[in-house]
Amino acid sequence: MKLALLALLAGCWKAEETPKRQPETIKVAIVGGMTDTGFWQALEERYEHASGDTVEVEITGPKPRVVAAFRAGGIDLITVHASDAMVNLVADGLAVDPQPWLRNDLIIVGPLADPAGIKGERDAGVALQKIVATKSKLVIHASFGADGVLHDLQEAAGVTLDPATTIVFLEENQRGVLARAAAEGAYTIVGRIPFKTGKLRADGIALMVQGDPRLRRPYLVEVAPNAKQGARDLAAFMRSPETQAWIATWGKGKLDDEPVFFPITLP
Hints:
Layout: H1 2-11, H2 13-17, E1 25-31, H3 32-36, H4 39-51, E2 54-61, H5 63-72, E3 77-81, H6 84-91, E4 96-111, H7 124-133, E5 138-141, H8 146-157, E6 166-169, H9 174-184, E7 187-191, H10 192-196, E8 205-209, E9 216-223, H11 229-239, H12 241-247, E10 262-263
Parallel strand pairs: 1-2, 1-3, 5-6, 5-7
Antiparallel strand pairs: 3-9, 4-7, 4-8, 4-9, 4-10
């Protein structure tokens, strides 16, 4: 009897997370990759069915637009990549309870000729070593997270980039970094989702390396200080074991044999 009761409490998210209350409408700001793939719509449907709340997407698109809209007020919950912009929302008193809840991943792409011979490599650190050893060009975007991922790879692989073959791209445009890589015959790091959906493409550039967990980047969820209880329940739902298990399988076969996003490891 005791074991059965414990199993019931462990598996019942709604009873554990949501006290009895009237259904609410939750206004959210969502980074574009989640809505472009249909992922957020599927998650939203699951939450609405479990809670009785209604979720309304007030804005979706690039991170700067989403963050700016949340700063303007009137939105209960935001989720974009972990970044200074998200930390500053908390530091400025505009958001609370920042929590990681899933990851996406980056890939290494490069010229069809593949001068470093890294195509099919699963270890991104080894790929980076080969790029540097062969004096192949590398374009790094300085504002979309790729620079942070690259720095961690350098530390892990013990690699020092060659200034003569490393190009730092500063414009706020992912298509621009891919076009620059194509023009230079260089490798670069971009998001797997926009590359595989065709949203991000350039002639002469092909996928080289994917699948290394070190290429993954976390997303944060935060709520406004005065957010409805429903927003807090939604954030808890996003981090629940049931949702994490669902994330691990959602979209397999949509881009490749991996899920579109990746779950986090819960404590």
